[in-house]
Each structure stands twice: as structure tokens, then as C-alpha cells.
Amino acid sequence: MAIAEVILQIALEIFKAFQKDGLSVLDRPLRDVLPSPLLSETERAAATAAAEAKFRHSA
Amino acid sequence: MKYARERLVALVLLSVMCVGCVSAVQTARRATTAAGMGVASADRVVSVGYREAAATALEQAESLSEYREAISGWDTAVDALASAAAGLRALESALDAVEAGLAEDWFPAALRAATSLRHLVAVLHVQGVDIPEEFTTFLTFAEALNGDR
């Protein structure tokens, strides 16, 4: 039953983490909290384009 | 029954989280959104790290292959973030389908999302990125689910 105890503890921690603002903050759909594309994907696309431009010119 | 033990554990979790006594699907949505907030936090950290690492690599590398080699760890982090985000979106779609009566089960999607989140935390750890606080609880949950299989 160790797994159930661990998960119970986690559930309590999740509850405590969101107690301050209330669980209503978690009723938002994923698209409201998770950007698409991700910021890091956008960053990678821009950085890759810059690198390709630099080395294309230097080649 | 397949996943019988995991279902039981998930029901225990959902029962505890179900403070407002909403449905299991609604509670699973809340867990998905919480994990999504964690992924978004990690994404913000990784995007800054990527920008800095890319600028350094661009300055020091003498070829495109050298640049790509220098930035490969951060590329892995971005891939893991994208995979985790896709896993959560798939889970949300599975929950939509169950709620619409088009499917009966969302638990396999939850396990897949947990696997991708578990991979993400491993990658972030290797890359030296701090795990956002709100992410930790869901990741521990993912570890517990996967470790029990």
C-alpha cells in the first residue's frame, strides 16, 4: 500500500499548493496555461535560423 | 482487469483532490491543468537558457555542426517539453472524448502523459534546470504511477 500512501500525500500537497488561489484556477483549459507553440520551440526556431544564416554566409 | 491497481490508486487520488465534489473527469482535468502550468513554467526557464546557450554557441562555433553539437542538450530539453505538452494535450482530448460519450477510458492517456513528464524531469535534471515548484507534485505522481507498473 506504499504507493497509495505516496499518492495520498501528493494529492494533499497538490491541494495545499492551490489552496491559496483556490481550485478554480485549475478549471482553465490547457490552451489557457500552455502556449502553443512553446516559448522554447519559438526560441529554438529563431536561434536555428540565425545559425543557419551565419554559417551559410561564412561557407 | 487491465490497470486495475492503477485505477484504484487514481481513484484514491481523485477522491482526495475532489474538494468541490466534482466528477472524476473534472478532477483529472484539474490535474492536467496543474501539470500544464508546470510545463509552462519549465518552458519559460528553458527558453531563457536556450537563448543564452545559443548566443554563446553562435559566437564560439566555427561551423553549423559545431553549433548544433554545442546546443544539443538544450534541443533535447525542448523536445522533452514538446513531448510533455503533447502528452497533456492528448490527455485533455481523451477527457473530452469521455465527457462527450465518444470513449470510455482516459487512463491510458494519463499514463502516457505521466511517462512523458517523467522523461522531461530527467532531461531537465541533466540540463541543470530547476524544476518549477508546481511541477514537482505531478512529477512525483508520475514517478509513482510508472514505478508501480
Oligomer: heterodimer
- Report the largest inter-chain contact: A-B, 36 and 54 residues
What's the helix-strand series of chain A?
A: HHH
Structural class of chain B: mainly alpha
The overall pLDDT average of chain B reads 79
3D structure, described in words:
- Chain A has 59 residues and is mostly helical.
- Chain A contains three helices and no strands.
- Chain A has helices at residues 2-19, 30-33, 39-58.
- Chain A is rod-shaped.
- The N and C termini of chain A lie far apart (62 Å).
- With 149 residues, chain B is mainly α.
- Chain B is 83% helix and 0% strand.
- Chain B contains five helices and no strands.
- Chain B has helices spanning 4-17, 24-60, 64-99, 107-127, 133-147.
- The two termini of chain B are 14 Å apart.
- Mean pLDDT of chain B is 79; it is low at 4-9.
- The chains are: A mainly alpha (59), B mainly alpha (149).
- Chain A binds chain B through residues 3-4, 6-8, 10-15, 17-18, 23, 26-30, 33-36, 38-44, 47, 50-52, 54-55, and chain B through 8-9, 12-13, 16-17, 19-20, 26, 29-34, 36-37, 39-40, 43-44, 46-47, 50-51, 54-55, 57-58, 61, 63-64, 67-68, 71, 74-75, 77-78, 81-82, 85, 88-89, 92, 133-134, 137-138, 140-141, 144, 147-148.
